[in-house]
Amino acid sequence: MEGLKGTCVYAIGGHNGSPTLDTVEAYSPAANTWRTLPSLPTARYALTATTAPCPKDVAGLKGICVYAIGGFTGTEFPDPAHDVGTVEAYSPATNTWRTLPSLPTARSFLAAATAPCPKEVEGLRGACVYAIGGAFGDTVEAYSPATNTWRTLPSLATPRDAPGAATAPCPKDVEGLRGACVYAFGGFNPTDNILDAVEAYSPATNTWRTVASLGTPRVALAGTSAPCPSGDRTLKSTCAYAIAGFNFTELALNTAEVFRPAANAWSSLPDLTTARFELAAATAPCPKNVRGGLKHTCVYAIGGSGDSPFAALNSVEALPVGD
Predict the structure, then answer these.
(1) Structural domain count of the chain
(2) Are 227 and 156 in contact (CB under 8 A)?
(3) 250: exposed, middle or buried (C-beta count within 10 Å: 0-12, 13-18, 19+)?
(4) d(CA 95, CA 265)
(5) Partners of residue 132 on adjacent β-strands
(6) What mean pLDDT value characterizes the chain?
(7) Distance between CA atoms of 11 and 152, rounded to whole angstroms?
(8) Cα 30 versus chain centre, distance
(9) Is residue 260 part of a domain?
């Protein structure tokens, strides 16, 4: 598409105080430009998204796809009757959306990550898309593009609504975890309120384990995976990032944290310029006008709400990470 080149960051659906949106926009760091893309087939709010290989046998999709998963289609919230299991995939190679098999469990305010499929679960192979929590539940489901199939996995130990999620190496010293892990962090449940609890799932063992807690309880945060921060030679790996969110102590948060698997510990990052919750996050090359430019990786914080309920934000921030 004209004006876009290289790797893009995608902003998908949501709302801005009006009914749910089908708007999709892409940002090109190489061009420092946003462009509007074909709309979501299903307008929705409180969905989640991740990137993974496209399904091989779905016409119109090829290469890497952006997956839009679940969400809420009503105008009154909360109303579980309007939670959807809709899954749609966008192929940048063809500039096309296609509808895929739905989530087995319809839900909103879930999180997603992409990681290797569990080897012992029939019907899953290759890379999987993981749909985690949401709707005040503990449900975890995985989709295999290689088989165009969803399967239900072991549940979270702690039900969580509006958590963050990311994929990074498993902590080495936690029994039952090895290889790459999917991390679920923060969120809300009626029993424990806003959570700092963090769990890690190992596809190699099909097991969840509790790992180090967040420094700050947070809900409606964003999560992403990216190279560990520069300047610390013990962090030559991938880290999980927990960005902004909300809690009842501080309301909208401008803080962010990074999880270092090698240390099984979270540490603070520089604050965001704008406090925000119900935002999205992504990892992509930095814009040319940010330190290191396209040769460095940035974590992006996209949109969300400020302290005033449903005061939608269109601002975007980027944090350079890695070397």
Answers:
(1) 1
(2) no
(3) middle
(4) 40
(5) 111, 140
(6) 93
(7) 27
(8) 23
(9) yes
Domain assignment of residue 303, given as a range: 9-321
The closest alpha carbon to 99, from 108, 90, 107, belongs to: 90
**Contacts (Cβ under 8 Å, ≥6 apart) of 92:** 8, 26, 63, 64, 66
Q: Which of 73-87, 164-178, 228-242 has the highest mean pLDDT?
A: 164-178
Paired tokens of 15: 């709302």
Is the distance from CB of 146 to CB of 125 less than 8 angstroms? yes
180 located within any domain: yes
- Structure tokens of 292? 């290191």
pLDDT digits (tens, 9 = 90+) for 29-41: 999 999 999 999 9
- What is the chain's alpha carbon radius of gyration, rounded to the nearest angstrom? 18
Across the beta sheet with 140-144, the strand order is 111-116, 127-132, 140-144, 149-152
| 229 found inside a domain | yes
Neighbouring C-beta atoms of residue 67, cutoff 10 Å: 24
Cα–Cα distance, 184 to 133 (Å, whole number): 8
Q: Would 64 be classed as within a structural domain?
A: yes
List the structure tokens of 45. Answer: 């709010």
User: pLDDT tens digit string along 266-317?
Assistant: 999 999 999 999 999 999 999 987 766 667 899 999 999 987 666 889 999 9
What is the distance of C-alpha 296 from the center of its chain?
21
In CATH, what number is assigned to the domain containing residue 188? 2.120.10.80
Lookup: tokens for 216: 């700050």
pLDDT digits (tens, 9 = 90+) for 124-162: 999 999 999 999 999 999 999 999 999 999 999 999 999
CA distance 240 to 185: 10
Residue 157 DSSP label: S
Pairwise CA distance, residues 83 & 64, whole Å: 27
| pLDDT (0 to 100) of residue 308 | 65
Distance CA 226, CA 255 (A): 17
Type of residue numbered 186? G
